[in-house]
Backbone:
């Protein structure tokens, strides 16, 4: 809460649009955070984040320890996957993953052995002594992705501040969407961990000021965080930077990154820029708690807090579930009435999606599961024609024109929608919520984005193919010219040698010796063999070039054959030089 003790307290501002929703959070806050249990199997997708999927470093049949690396990151936008407990790798295969389409992806199946044995760890409580790059490497190696739902690689996000002066580090504890209370429970019960993570992150990026944003409908979380902050100030802890807890009005979607920045700083994030470009970095409270545990205790991201809620559950609440835990296992623990479950939603009711099946795992971005009854979430009425009331425009937090975007999407004029800033849409669903015609506006926007992204991917692929073709053609022309130049050089050298050979004339007493007769014959034979070897070399070069262009498996064998042929050619050159030496040294 804005403290009167600190001068220059943050003045909360408003952002355009937005709506006030019933929060429905009380039902999952009746009990403290509980363990999610140990299921018979853990299904660990290789892609639980934005960016490239991780690459497996284990095989079926391997026994692994808790915290052991199972899949390594593939580039800076990827994050690794670790074993949530000790056990046996039973399969690496395609399984259903959390997605509205029910799609499958590569997953590692781990059978726990019940021993929960850790790999060797190296805690670093004195992290202030480490260089920035060492801390970043540790964060990236821990497998942390944005736990607020974004799934962006945390190490990459921290590294984006390189070269920027960060004025404010904003900690997002808003959790504005209905039903979800995972962050709220974390703040109420583990405020110290959050502040330790905040101190570490602020040190890493050298932030000048720290702001912790919490909605005013979370009084217990506000009180817990204020108490922890007071203790840190009294203890003269590592949280040395000016830090303020800012209470903001309950309004959806105030937890959006752009909206939160505008509320706390008054700055609008320009189109196509990152918060670091204007001296700001935002992190979720659960993310910085995970950073603290990763750096200080050497614990990679193995579990997360997930809200289990909805009227179809007899025992709702927040569970700390191991990554890879099957959703149906968690729902059984929460006492799901399957017959009464009308909707099974992962995430919140506004930005989440309906799961086609509960046979999918908990992943790093899973913050909530709603098992709703038909009375709780009745079916949406049929969509009707737009009446042009303008309510969607009034509630859009990005000041877009939802009605115009809808017309472009319905008319397949996707590029016109893009010109009207379609990709600025955060898909919050506020427009669809207030639409009196019950038009599923966000679905239309997602479709247009999907079409445009597919076109962009196809165009990028075509550009890469064209570049490869042009490079190959240029290389073939260059090799052809080099080959012709070598042929001309050999022909000229042969003519020069023939002109230097003395004529075989004279009297019998002047006849050449047997050695003089043999030398030219041996030289000619060696020259013929060398020409044949050169032709074979050209053939191998062409075959190798084609194999490299097509990424054929025979490329290594051709490279070895060419290397051996080069050695043979060098030996022939030496023999030819030796054969010519005595002939050149004789006098006619």
Residues:
């Amino acid at each position: 809460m804005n403290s009167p003790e600190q001068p220059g307290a943050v003045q909360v501002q408003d952002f355009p649009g937005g709506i006030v929703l019933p929060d429905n959070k009380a039902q999952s806050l009746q009990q403290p955070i509980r363990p999610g249990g140990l299921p018979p199997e853990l299904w660990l997708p290789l892609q639980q984040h934005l960016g490239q999927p991780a690459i497996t470093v284990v095989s079926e049949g391997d026994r692994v320890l808790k915290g052991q690396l199972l899949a390594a990151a593939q580039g800076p936008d990827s994050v690794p996957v670790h074993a949530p407990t000790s056990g046996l790798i039973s399969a690496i295969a395609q399984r259903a993953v959390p997605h509205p389409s029910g799609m499958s992806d590569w997953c590692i199946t781990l059978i726990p052995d019940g021993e929960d044995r850790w790999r060797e760890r190296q805690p670093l409580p004195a992290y202030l002594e480490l260089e920035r790059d060492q801390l970043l490497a540790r964060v990236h190696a821990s497998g942390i992705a944005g736990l607020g739902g974004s799934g962006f690689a945390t190490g990459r996000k921290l590294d984006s501040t390189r070269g920027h002066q960060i004025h404010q580090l904003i900690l997002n504890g808003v959790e504005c969407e209905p039903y979800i209370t995972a962050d709220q429970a974390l703040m109420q019960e583990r405020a110290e961990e959050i502040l330790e993570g905040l101190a570490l992150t602020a040190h890493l990026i050298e932030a000048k000021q720290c702001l912790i944003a919490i909605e005013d409908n979370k009084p217990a979380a506000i009180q817990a965080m204020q108490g922890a902050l007071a203790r840190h100030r009294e203890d003269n802890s590592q949280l040395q930077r000016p830090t303020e807890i800012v209470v903001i009005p309950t309004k959806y979607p105030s937890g959006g990154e752009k909206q939160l920045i505008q509320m706390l700083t008054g700055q609008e994030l320009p189109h196509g820029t990152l918060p670091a470009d204007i001296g700001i970095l935002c992190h979720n409270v659960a993310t910085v708690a995970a950073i603290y545990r990763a750096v200080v205790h050497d614990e990679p991201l193995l579990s997360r807090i997930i809200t289990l809620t909805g009227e179809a559950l007899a025992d709702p609440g927040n569970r700390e579930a191991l990554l890879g835990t099957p959703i149906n296992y968690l729902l059984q623990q929460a006492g799901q009435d399957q017959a009464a479950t009308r909707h099974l939603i992962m995430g919140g009711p506004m930005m989440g999606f309906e799961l086609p099946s509960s046979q999918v795992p908990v992943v790093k971005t899973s913050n909530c599961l709603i098992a709703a009854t038909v009375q709780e979430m009745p079916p949406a009425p049929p969509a009707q024609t737009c009446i042009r009331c303008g309510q969607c425009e009034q509630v859009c937090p990005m000041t877009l024109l939802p009605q115009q975007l809808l017309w472009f999407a319905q008319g397949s004029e996707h590029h016109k929608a893009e010109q009207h800033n379609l990709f600025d849409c955060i898909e919050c669903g506020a427009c669809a919520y207030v639409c009196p015609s019950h038009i599923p506006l966000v679905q239309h926007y997602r479709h247009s984005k999907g079409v445009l992204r597919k076109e962009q991917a196809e165009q990028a692929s075509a550009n890469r193919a064209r570049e490869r073709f042009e490079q190959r053609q240029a290389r073939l022309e260059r090799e052809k010219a080099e080959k012709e130049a070598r042929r001309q050089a050999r022909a000229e050298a042969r003519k020069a040698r023939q002109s230097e050979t003395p004529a075989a004339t004279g009297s019998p007493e002047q006849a050449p010796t047997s050695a003089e007769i043999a030398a030219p014959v041996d030289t000619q034979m060696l020259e013929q063999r060398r020409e044949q070897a050169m032709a074979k070399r050209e053939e191998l070069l062409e075959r190798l070039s084609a194999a490299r262009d097509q990424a054929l498996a025979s490329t290594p064998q051709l490279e070895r054959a060419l290397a051996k042929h080069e050695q043979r050619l060098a030996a022939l050159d030496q023999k030819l030089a030796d054969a010519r030496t005595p002939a050149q040294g004789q006098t006619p």
